[in-house]
Amino acid sequence: MRYDLTMNEGPVYVAVLMVHEQPFATKELAEAVAAQWDADHPEELAAVASLRAEGLDHVADRKATRVEEWPADKWDRQGPGGRKAVWSRMPDRRIVHQALMAYSPDGSISHEFQSAAPVWEFQTDSYTTKDAEWRVERRPGPDGLTEAWVRGCSEEAVAEAYVRARQEALRVCGVGQ
């Protein structure tokens, strides 16, 4: 449930998480999300520390996870989604298994990627509550790649969907017909 600030003109606490700015109704929520984000992304913490060691504090400060206090009207004017985007509860966080396979027109694998990582509800491109879901899409252009994309919360269901997505991608490529 998002928070409606129409009755509350108090500040918005913005958790700045690399490329994500997530607004919260309370400082405690924003700090809890920021702390979990840092725990989930130790490589980002190491990169910020490395920047500081190189004397690039001004760059490290922009990349570091932090919580900022914004006036509600500023978030309303400048924040994505305005007041309706403010969280009044802890967003859901799940381990999401993902795979992307791209096939050339002859059915050979152009590139492949697999991961399992924590994903927050506000990361709408990666977040899911489903055991598994998949899609296949042929990309236009001279390479004519066919992409098979799979994601889900169940490692076993994602593995099964991976097989189905691969079969469909090869069918779209015209391999074996």
Entry keywords:
elongated, alpha+beta, 3-stranded antiparallel β-sheet, 177 residues, 5 helices
Question: How would you describe this structure to a colleague?
Answer:
Helix content is 33%, strand content 29%. The protein has 177 residues and is of the alpha+beta class. The chain has a four-stranded antiparallel β-sheet, with helices on one face. Strands 2-1-3 form a three-stranded antiparallel β-sheet. A hairpin with a 7-residue loop joins strand 6 (133-138) and strand 7 (146-152). Helix 2 (42-53) runs antiparallel to helix 3. It is elongated and about 60 Å long.
Number of H/I helices: 5
The largest sheet is: 4 strands, antiparallel
Shape label: elongated
Q: Using only CA atoms, what is the Rg? A: 20 Å
Mean pLDDT, rounded to whole units? 86
The percent of residues in helical segments reads: 25-40%
**Helix/strand order:** EEHHHEHEEEEH
Total number of β-strand segments? Answer: 7
Strand order of the largest sheet: 5-4-7-6
Distance between the termini: 49 Å
Helices and strands, with pairings:
Blueprint: E1 12-17, E2 20-24, H1 27-40, H2 42-53, H3 57-63, E3 66-70, H4 72-78, E4 93-103, E5 109-120, E6 133-138, E7 146-152, H5 155-173
Antiparallel strand pairs: 1-2, 1-3, 4-5, 4-7, 6-7
Helix pairs in contact: 2-3
